[in-house]
Design a protein that fits this description.
Elements lengths: L2 H28 L7 E4 L2 E5 L11 H9 L7 H22 L2 E7 L2 E8 L6 H17 L5 E7 L3 E4 L2 E2 L2 E2 L22 H9 L7 E8 L8 H10 L2 E7 L8 E7 L10 E9 L3 E9 L2 E2 L5 E6 L2 E9 L5 E11 L10 E8 L4 E6 L6 H9 L3 E5 L8 H4 L4 E5 L8 H12 L4 E5 L14 H5 L2 E2 L11 E8 L7 H16 L5 E7 L3 E9 L3 H8 L10 H13 L5 E8 L8 H10 L2 E8 L5 H10 L1 E7 L5 H13 L3 E2 L6 E2 L20 E2 L2 E2 L5 E5 L5 E8 L2 E6 L17 H12 L6 E2 L2 E6 L2 E7 L12 E8 L7 E9 L2 E7 L4 E12 L5 E13 L12 H10 L1 E4 L14 E6 L1 H20 L2 H10 L1
Parallel strand pairs: 4-5, 4-9, 9-10, 10-45, 19-20, 19-21, 21-22, 22-36, 24-25, 24-27, 27-28, 28-29, 37-44
Antiparallel strand pairs: 1-2, 2-3, 3-46, 5-6, 7-8, 11-12, 12-16, 13-14, 13-15, 13-17, 17-18, 23-33, 25-26, 30-32, 31-34, 34-35, 35-36, 38-39, 39-42, 40-41, 40-43, 41-42, 43-44
Helix pairs in contact: 1-2, 2-3, 3-19, 5-6, 6-18, 7-17, 11-12, 11-16, 14-15
Length: 917
Amino acid sequence: MSVRARRVLFGLFLAAFTAALVFSYKRYVLEAPPGAFKWQRGGEHFELLNPEALGLLLLSPLLVLGMLRSLADLPWAQRALSLLVRIAFLALLAFGLSSPVRSETTSQIATVVLVDVSDSVSLESLGEAKAELERVIAARRPGDVVRLVTFAQRPRLVEIEKDGAITAPAAEALRHEKAQGGAGAGTDIQAALQLAYGLFPPGYLKRALLLSDGLETSGDLLAEANRARGFGVRLSTRPFRKPPPGEVSVVALRLPDKVDIGQTFNVTADVYASRATQARLRLYQGEALNGLDGVRSIDLPAGRTEVTFQSVVRVGGEVTYALELEPGGDDAFKENNRYRATLDVPGRPLVLYIEGQPARATYLSNALSAQQFDVDTRAPSSMPASLGELERFDFVILSDTPREAIPLAAQDLLERYVRDIGGGFLFAGGPSGYGLGGWAHTTIERLLPVRMDAERQKEMPGVAMALVIDRSASMTGLPMEMAKAACNATVGTLQGDDLVEVVAFDGEPERYVKLQPVRYRSRIQADVQRIQPGGGTAIFPALYMAYQDLSVVQARKKHVILLTDGQTQESDLRELAQAMLGESITLTTVGLGDTVSVELLRALADGGGGRFHLAPDPKALPRIFTRETELVSQQAAVEEWFPVSQVGNADFLKGISISSAPLLHGYVSTQLKPTPAQLILESDRGEPILARWRAGLGWALAWTSDVKNAWSVEWLRWPGFSRFWGQLVREHMRVKRRREVDMKAEVDGSQVRVSVDAFTADERFDNDWQSVVKVRRAGDKGAPKEMPLTQTAPGRYEAAVPLDGYGSFLLRAEHAKKRPDGSLEPVGTSVAHVSNPYPREYANFEADVERMRRAALTGGGLLDPPALALFDPQGESIPHHAELYGRAVFAALVVFLLDLLLRRVRLFERRVVARRR
């Protein structure tokens, strides 16, 4: 037969062999009926758990093809034997991958004993647990397993087997040590069961015995008992029935949801006693004993007792009640003898009044008090330093205060107070208000509805100003730098067509800036920077030089500002000041530090028709120079009698006749910003006196006159003064027109769960709220913890906020909706309070036998089982598979080594050679 014919026949054979293998695999493996790969031998049961792995034999045709293509020079007999060995190797490997097992059934039992060692379990009960554990160990059969888990806040595996012997530990040793992180102030049975799942060895029936009082502080025993049954674990329970230790505790302190000022109400306490005893109760309101009913001595029967106190709140705000218990007998735990609860009593609206001249703050403060407001009057230095402190107030007034008295951080707080939490804000004028106080281009100006760069009227002529600056040696350092800054501030305040010069003097005067238009600001400021300290102090030549320069120019206003930090003996200065005034040149003097001649400088200012300023701090110089420049140029202050006209409608003006109001005597000139700024009152010149606009969630108002006995002296005598300010504050104060929405709050472990159900006026679900709840522990001064409320159902909003420790907590939720323009519109607020006074482990000490009974019923076990019942299979067995794949793999390895031998050694050829010899 030819080679070609042999190849064709071999190809047909190989194809038929492959097809037969595929057919057999599909028919007898993939389509095999259940139990096809189970068999018995010698009374033992065997099974292939993964018969699909036999498909590895489908590679056999490749081994045949590889034998024909092999380059090894071996006899055909040896090559055929090698092929058979390789197929055997493949078959053994496929058999091992098919997971051959020997099936067995067992009735061995593994029992995990779970012992509650939390603080609510007495030492006597732990002794009972030790005795029960000993009975369980004694009842086990040969081959059975016993494990021990103790638990309080966390579970712990306790090794009880040593050198093949199992011994129950002493009752005292069952307690968890603090260093192990298992403090006893908690009970988590669910976590203990979850740890037990990993302690059952394979091939054992699973049993668990729970020894506990059934009192949980976290987790869910009943839910975990049902889950344990699904895992094949039968849970039995044995509740501790030893009487609880002598214990007295305050379980709850209940306050009404709403309290009115001056109205008597009840404070109810729930007190628990494990056995009849006596106790003394003290109820505190804040730091003092409750006035109406503060101390009680009572006889407590075993169980819970309700004790009622009477109380009354005289001042609105946050009120904290604390009940302290002094037991007359045994008391195992002191941690539960004090309970705090806090409520927020809505009092009169609270106004924060910041006044730059505190001694003159009584006029507005008394007017608002007469309108049923509580007014907290403060100096600028006592401005609140946190938003948490500022949000206590419903309205904030900042009056006649210079810019440097309010730090930038405080200005940002005021802006957040108005924009973010809806506060009302009024900025009142005066000699230190608006532009006069340096408020231009600040956060406050951005917040207000007016601009502080008042327009100069076209008919107003220019100003010629000379700045006479002391540059003696004592001005070295910060005073010199602040003096330069004051000069630059003056240049920045004047208009471009005004004239300015700077004369610096020590023993001799020198013109550093010649009299020139202010429009050349860059050059002027560069020349100012050249001023350097020199020698002595000679005021007269420098002042005379300024007088000569100003007397020859045409200007509507001519003014000199003299700055010095020293003294001079020259006697002709008073005559020079009077001569300057005769030429319509006014003189203002500024004394820097404590060594200046105050009497001389004051006399010069009086004789020169100007003002005297004493500046102890060099940092005040820029503000003083700026204020002087504003006053001289009349760009900011208008001091003359004028009537006020109403030009805009406002609800707070109902019942108030502005036309009958007396004249004001001054204001600070400003400009109204574009819409939505609204002008309410204006001067006879058409400039703003009262303007307002919405700023975020709140209102910002600008009152350009003052609120004291200077510019508003006649208004103080006006019968409508109190009503005007009372109605203005009431309309624009915080939370106006917001409805109160009920909020439910309850403590769940270490967090408080909050829920709000929102409805519209027609009882429909109110959706798409943007709500935030703030939780703050009573007495804490820091910022509250914030958490958004998420909509979980139509009209329902929920949040879970972690509680930071123990105490009484106040909750406040702010609800808003988006307007079409994207801004937020307040729609309501919610308030609630919860108490988490101490770990719940100390709240109850009576065993919950019913919970333990239900846990045993749910877990498929028994209540109070005999020890022998824990190791009774009750006809139950569990299949167990003994893995046999290792034997198949070992056999495959032996066959593989035999194949290597056949490929490396010519067995048949060696026998032939031996016969020839």
